[in-house]
Amino acid sequence: MGSCAVSKTIVRLAVAACLTAVVGCSAAPEGELVRTYQRALEAFDQAAGPEDYLRAAVLYQEILDRGVVSGALLYNQGNAYMRAGQRGRAIACYRRALAYRPRDPQLHANLQLALGAESAIRGPRGLLDYVFFWHDWISYPGKVRAAAALASLAFAFGILALFVPPRRVFRRAAWGTLVLTVIVAGSAAYDWHRFERIQRGVVVRAEVVARKGNADSYDPAFTEPLKEGTELRVVERRGAWLQIQLAGGQTGWVPDAAVTTY
User: Fold this and answer.
1) How far is the C-alpha of 140 from the C-alpha of 189, rounded, in Å?
2) Measured between alpha carbons, how far apart are the two ends of the chain, in Å?
3) CA-CA distance, 262 to 259, in Å (whole number)?
4) CA neighbours within 13 Å on the CB side: how many for 130?
5) Which candidate, 47, 108, 243, 261, has a CA 20 to 30 Å from the CA of 197?
6) Would you state the pLDDT for residue 175?
7) What does the pLDDT average to over 194-202?
8) CB of 229 closer than 8 Å to CB of 94
9) What SS3 state is found at 244?
10) Beta strand pairing status for 226-227 and 200-203?
């Protein structure tokens, strides 16, 4: 699985940027996170078996739990889970990383490997997928930043159109930039809906029986157990049970311990 090799330089830059954004110039917390990151890299590089790779994944999770989230960290955590034999958790990490690195060929290759040759990375395309056909060209955070920059530029052109000749030119520029702002903001809103509003999950046990209700006493919802790596959408949570919906629309209930959600 050569494509799972950790890109140290890329991750160092990503972690440094995230640390700056999250903890600013405070040396103590930044140093603590960088040390955790270095330990995760060493654990992965020196791993001799699944338990060692799992330890690397846990260390990456410590960084993510502190609010430092990046596509590189999620990608590396997915690689660690994959090497540890936890395919379901690896799929969840790779899926989350797509929001930050939608055009990364290594990420796509590793996700496809985790899913298996019979599964597609993208499901059926909806109407909004055709309207925003380009939305996978730019990351979700990149769209948010681009929309903010375009809105500021449209405002600046609007001010110039009021006071600086030739006003017609600045007015047209303001309207054109405003249209671009609306388009990019709409795509960012669609990403928010896909990545944040909808809760998704992946089965992490070797298999789990989905039930018709939120207890083991209910009959099975499907003729076959759900296998590790099965992707789903979370509809409802009741205690320690999740109502889930599969890609084909079938619904059932599974213990929340059998699923990792994101």
Assistant:
1) 9
2) 25
3) 10
4) 4
5) 108
6) 98
7) 95
8) no
9) strand
10) unpaired
Torsion of CA 192, 197, 198, 199, to 10 degrees: 120
pTM of the model: 0.82
pLDDT for residue 23:
44
Q: Which amino acid is at 81?
A: Y
- Tokens 């052109």 — which residue? 157
C-alpha span between 70 and 78 (Å, rounded): 12
CA distance 80 to 116: 18
Q: Give the whole-angstrom CA distance, residue 37 versus residue 241.
A: 34
- The model's pLDDT over 88-141, given as tens digits with 9 standing for 90+, comes to 999 999 999 999 999 999 999 999 999 997 676 766 666 767 776 777 889 999
To which residue do tokens 């029986």 refer? Answer: 209
| Whole-number Å distance between alpha carbons of 201 and 116 | 17
* Amino acid (1-letter code) at residue 183: I
Q: For residue 44, count other CB atoms closer than 10 A to its CB.
A: 24
What single DSSP character describes residue 99? T
The C-alpha angle 222, 241, 210, rounded to 5 degrees, equals 10
Alpha helices (H) in the chain, listed in sequence order: 8-23, 27-45, 50-65, 71-83, 87-98, 105-115, 127-131, 140-163, 167-192
CA separation for the pair 139, 26 (Å, rounded) = 28
